[in-house]
């Protein structure tokens, strides 16, 4: 039995081995030329495009990483200074509250002084009214007492003289 490989190339019956070899070499060269001129540039262009896409994506990733690091650093710095900022805001709020407290106390002091002043004026008016009423009652009582005393102890001439003296003294008051 004779074994032949399926991958063995035998020239057809009317072509010599040399012609077959030349035809195979020419076919191979033609195939290499077509692959080199058409397929390889297309594959190289696809590879270049893919490499550009990968480089762009890598650049985008690097830019995003830098931005993320910048944001992280900004937050870290803000967090480091947040206590100072909070203390400053608290101090400002305490100062504002102190000013407001002083303003309220000052206003309350003015209102209290005004109330006291009005109270003193009202007391003075009431005092003047009471004194006038007491003075009037005192005068009325003195007149009544004088009339009563005059009726009992004095004669008509003495009564008239005492009454005239009293009326004269009341008019001067």
Task: Report on this structure.
With 173 residues, this protein is mainly α. It has one domain. Helices cover 89% and strands 0% of the residues. The chain has two helices and no strands. It has helices at residues 17-153, 156-172. Helix 1 runs antiparallel to helix 2 (156-172). The longest helix has 137 residues, at 17-153. The termini are far apart. The mean pLDDT is 84.
In a nutshell, what does this entry contain?
With 173 residues, this protein is an all-alpha fold. It has 2 helices and no strands.
Task: Name the average pLDDT.
Answer: 84
Number of helices in the DSSP assignment = 2
Structural class: mainly alpha
Tell me the number of strands: 0
Largest sheet: none
Give short descriptive properties of this protein.
173 residues, mainly alpha, 2 helices
Task: Give the arrangement of secondary structure elements.
Elements: H1 17-153, H2 156-172
Helix pairs in contact: 1-2
């Amino acid at each position: 039995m004779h074994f032949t490989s399926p991958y063995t190339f035998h020239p057809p019956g009317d072509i010599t081995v040399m012609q077959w070899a030349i035809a195979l070499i020419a076919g191979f060269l033609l195939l290499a030329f077509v692959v080199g001129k058409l397929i390889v540039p297309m594959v190289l262009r696809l590879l270049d495009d893919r490499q550009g896409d990968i480089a762009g994506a890598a650049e985008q990733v690097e830019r995003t990483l830098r931005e993320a690091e910048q944001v992280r650093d900004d937050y870290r710095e803000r967090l480091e200074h947040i206590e100072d900022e909070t203390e400053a805001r608290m101090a400002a709020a305490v100062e504002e509250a102190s000013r407001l407290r002083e303003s309220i106390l000052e206003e309350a002091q003015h209102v209290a002084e005004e109330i006291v002043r009005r109270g003193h004026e009202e007391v003075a008016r009431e005092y003047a009214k009471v004194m006038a009423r007491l003075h009037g009652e005192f005068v009325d009582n003195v007149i009544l007492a004088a009339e009563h005393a005059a009726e009992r102890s004095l004669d008509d001439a003495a009564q008239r003289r005492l009454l005239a003296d009293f009326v004269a003294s009341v008019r001067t008051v």
